[in-house]
Amino acid sequence: IGKCYFTSAQIEDQTSEVARRFAHDFDMAYGRRPGHLEALGYDAATLLTEAFKADYYSRPQITQYLKTVKGFKGASGVVSFGEYRENIEMPIFTIEFGEPKRVLRGDRAIDDEYRIKWTGETDER
Question: What angle is formed at CA 86 by the lines to CA 117 and CA 57, rounded to 5 degrees?
Answer without folding.
Answer: 150
